[in-house]
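Lab notebook, bench 4. Continuing the backlog of folding jobs that were queued last week. Each job is logged with the same field layout so the records can be merged later without manual cleanup. Today's entry covers Oxidoreductase CipA-like protein, a 339-residue chain. Filled in by technician R.K.

JOB TYPE: sequence-to-structure
TARGET: Oxidoreductase CipA-like protein
LENGTH: 339
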Amino acid sequence: MTNQYAKDQLAGFSNRIQRIAIVGAAGTVGKPITEELLRTGQHSVTALTRIGSTSQVPAGVQSITVDYDDEASLVRALQGQDCLIISLSVRTPRDTQSKLLQAASQAGIRHVMPNVWGCDVTHPPLADSGLNWGGFRDLVAGIEAEGMAWTALICGFWYEHSLVLGPSAFGFDLSAKKLILNDDGNTKVNVSTLAQCGRAVATLLSLPVLPEDEQDDQLTMSRWRNKPMYISDFLLTQRDMLASWLRVTGDTADSWTIEQEPSQSRYERGLESVKQGDHAGLVLAMYSRVFFPNGDGNYEQRQGLDNNLLRLPTEDLDEHTREAKLMFDRGYNYMTNRN
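JOB STATUS: finished
OUTPUT FIELD FOLLOWS
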């Protein structure tokens, strides 16, 4: 889109994103995104679900079953949609996103939110850290080459999910009341709640695509056209997380075992596990890398945040720690039980 104002677009141009297709509508971040999109009342939402999936999409969503290996079925499912949101499980074959993007281009999709929901993959030290973040530059270049626009949500790790994910993530073994600190446990990293991720995406896609003309100074999607959007709820250390857990549960500090390990050592051990075929090591490598004590996990300091522009509410830390506690009590497990 070369013209920067809505008034200069071709006949038939709509300055709103109305029809949205989402892959992963029942997933960890896909579900709150879908629910918030429906709450706006401005969008029709279609969920693309793979053959054999037993996931239940939120009420009010049209569901279309597709075969990711059948490009024609993907194109048919995406025709007439304005935007494609991709949220894939870590167990999804790695070429799935590229297949979806090829089909999106053929179907005439205008805007894509790719499968990028987490740390600042635009930050070269993280992009070049030997993890799977390095593919971001090629990913978005490919989207642009196909004539589509993109916006990536940089939100840090999901707070509640990560707190109960196990010691490889934020270091918490909640069953054993044990915490493994990266270094001294005082490194601050940006994190977001799942609900806030949903609100951010819904707010973005409810904005006008372009300003109407030169005098129109309202916020539009064009601010984040082919750019990342940065949000965060909390800038926290592991010790901050523990303090919140103690407040919420009534546990005492002396009932917990606290250990320390260099983040560099944890990172290297995670990478080695991945090389040996243990993909659980990827979690350890990713989280410990973001906790390096050099500020890589503090994108708020480098980039600033878009929370205020998007008019996102201020979240309460203990409220979301309490939600994490409920998830833990329900037996939440990313791989086997996401209820």
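OBSERVATION: The chain is about 35% helix and 15% strand.
SIGNED: R.K.
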